[in-house]
Amino acid sequence: MTGKNTGPDTLAFLPEGSELAGLIRAFDWQGTAMGELRQWPEYLRTVVALMLRSAVPMTLQWGREGWMIYNDAYRGIAAARHPALLGKTIGNAWAEIADFRQGVVDRVLDGNTLSYRNEHFSLMRIDGPEDVWLDIDYSPVVDVAGIPVGVLAIVKDTSARFRAEQRLLIAQEAGDVGTFELYPQSGRFEVSSAFRRIWGLDDEVSVTAELMNSLVHPDDRQTSVAREMELADQLAYREYRRVDPHTGEIRWIAVRGKAIIVAGSVPRFAGIAADVTERKRAEQALAESEHRWRRLVEQMNIKQVRHGNVRLLVAQLGEQAERHGRRSGGMVMLAEMLGKSMAQVSRFAAEKPVTRIGDRIAREIEQVFEKEHGWMDHVQWSAALSDRTSSAGGPERNP
Fold first, then answer.
1. Which among 10, 14, 73, 207 could bridge 57 via Cys, Cβ 3.0 to 4.6 Å?
2. Nearest Cα to 120, choosing from 170, 159, 168?
3. Is residue 27 within a helix (H) or strand (E), and if so which, with residue range?
4. pTM of this prediction?
5. Is the dihedral of CA 374, 377, 379, 383 positive or negative?
6. 19-157 in CATH: which number?
7. 330-382: pLDDT as tens digits
8. CATH assignment of 163-275, given 3.90.245.10, 3.10.100.10, 3.30.450.20, 3.90.1150.10?
């Protein structure tokens, strides 16, 4: 090798306090392509010194055989293979991924720089194979002539983050919830695939504050979507309507977000979005049903009611409730109409199930339910009630 240094300070590049520095000192390097430790060239010393002083996991693979050196931060990735990995070649270190590593070393020694993100490996551990995801950046180490002689790798274990992202993605898809991050200074959004689907956005579309505002129904544009998100409290909730550009259908989108505060400033906002159209439609249908029911009660004719009886009254209330999309029985409807509890109405109906509802009984109902005299005169009742009463053999006569 060139650039040898045999002076008394030739090992000063190995820092004190580093476990790997001590192991490197003690290792017999004469049987490797790197040669005796004190004769390492300056460029090799420099890269090893840099690596051993770094808090980021790093490895050095030397020559085509990939003789391996790593730093203290890499011990967590090496796990039970530490310290046996030191001084091993590609063929006998991480044998299960030897083909991948050899391909990388060959390409980098040919002058290439490589990067991998969330690269999956199945590594053998004491308890068996373990799935691991890594970010790795490979770059060549060159000699004094500029020829690549080694491969420096910066490694980050992203397994926990990758699994969390996968769990989040599954939860988003299952719950049809999208996520977003808004950067107010640029108006840029970073959004998930579920967010794009909810807002009807293609994958290649760049999401900006201007675009988001254009998607909102014109009546909801008193202020921009992005601006409302910026002004939102930590758990603020907003609902927006959007018009589907293809079908013209109105969709309701619910958004909840919070400010991410760093050093007293708010560089971004994060949150979720969900399509709540079905819920809004159900609420609207229920409100319309309640409105129709109130109008039905208001239009009842007490003069016709008086010709029926309590049992038929409850039965027809139930039929009309079902006809108007309500599943509640007639007793529940009567209780709602009179503003009383089910227990009160049930007791009254049980005492007088076939009693004719004449003037006296109507007044009695008013007294029992503490209503003002004549309150039932403000409602209507179907003439079918008296017909049903007649067909049932006639109502019971009042004395």
1. 73
2. 159
3. none
4. 0.53
5. positive
6. 3.30.450.20
7. 777 777 766 667 777 777 777 666 655 555 556 655 565 555 444 444 444 33
8. 3.30.450.20
